[in-house]
Amino acid sequence: MKIQKTELAQKLNKIKSVVPKKTTQAVLQGILVKDGYLIANNMEMTVKAKIGGTEGESFIIPERAFDLINNLPDGEMEIAPTAKNTITIKADKIKNKYQTLDVELFPVTAVQEEGNELTIKADMLLESVRRVAYAVPAQGQNVVMMAMCLQATDGQLNFVGLDGHVLAWDRVDYEGEFELLIPKNTVEKLKSLGLSGEVQIKHNKLGAVFATEDFEIYTRLIEGEYFKYRSMFKELPIHTVVSRSDLLDAMVRAKMCTEEKCPVRFEMSGNTLSLSIKDKMTDYNETVELQEEMPKELTIGFDARLVLETLKAFDCDNVGLSLEGPKMPMIVEAEDSDFRTIVLPVNLG
């Protein structure tokens, strides 16, 4: 095939993180070129990137060729099978031959035709996915918790992440009924591909596919029943509003003053929030103005990292803070959408 180096490199870089570092199937440590697509597979997720000029081509680009392709001079390049299980890469005065593997050995997983489907605008999907993704843990003992819940019910499409210390929930209007538990790795890949236009989501009990004009992402689904997250959001007696950027900036300054994992102390009284963070080397204090007067004084501690990540997930100017007591969770809500989170407190000692 003949192709512009920049186009191939851009698509390779979008999907190469799917290629497994360790696998019992050596063929998976490459990217398949077939039927107009670049295809990467790690047996839990398959990502296909559409690429022109490859129709009728069928070969595997081995992982060790990725860096060479990225570093070739801009302009036209050529990749062609030259003998059994070998390919040759040419560009300008450069030529290199690679051993590869039989394309027939490369497994391409797909969702069965039977199932359900929906269509959602990519920007709407990605906005909600990005908001809740930080609350989905990358590892842990609870497999269900290591998934983003995509649940349609009661006229809403809900996006939920929960790691035991923080809960994030966003939703958009949608008529339908289903529940998909999408693995963390797939969530991160959806965020990074730069999807545009409309996304068609097909799913059955075992897997789902997210498809646009340029990409298809097939993923296995995690089995199990998700947590009753709705019941965790309750009306709380103490409520105030704060500038998200003011509180976020204060938290960034406080956190950069310590390398230790120590809690941030919130002392809330009247129209002020005094936050402090202290360890062996630092004793940081800053006051942030509240836009609504506190009905009563409250001192509460939080994991500083979780507060930072929570505030970064919002994109509105102001957030609402709802509390009950020093040992009860805090609810953080957006002023311009249905996005809301719960942050559990920590013991101040």
Question: Which features does this protein show?
Answer:
349 residues; alpha+beta; DNA Polymerase III, Chain A, domain 2; 6 helices
Would you kindly provide a written description of the structure presented here, covering whatever features stand out?
The chain has six helices and 25 strands. The relative contact order is 0.12. Strands 5-2-3-4-16-15-14-9 form an eight-stranded antiparallel sheet. The protein has an eight-stranded antiparallel sheet with strand order 13-10-11-12-24-23-22-17. A five-stranded antiparallel sheet has the order 20-19-18-21-25. It is an alpha+beta fold and 349 residues long. The protein has three domains: 2-105, DNA Polymerase III, Chain A, domain 2 (Roll); 116-231, DNA Polymerase III, Chain A, domain 2; 233-346, DNA Polymerase III, subunit A, domain 2 (DNA Polymerase III, Chain A, domain 2, Roll).
Runs in which pLDDT lies below 50 for 5 or more consecutive residues are none
Distance between the termini: 65 Å
Count of alpha and pi helical runs: 6
By DSSP, the count of extended strands is 25
Strand order of the largest sheet: 5-2-3-4-16-15-14-9
Helical residue percent band: 10-25%
Rg estimate, integer Å: 24 Å
CATH architecture of the largest domain: Roll
* Major β-sheet annotation: 8 strands, antiparallel
Structural class: alpha+beta
CATH domain topology of the largest domain: DNA Polymerase III, Chain A, domain 2
Outline: elongated
Give average pLDDT, whole number. 94
Give the C-level CATH assignment of the largest domain. Answer: Alpha Beta
> How much strand content do the residues show?
35-45%
* Domain unit count: 3
Q: What is the CATH H-level superfamily of the largest domain? A: DNA Polymerase III, subunit A, domain 2
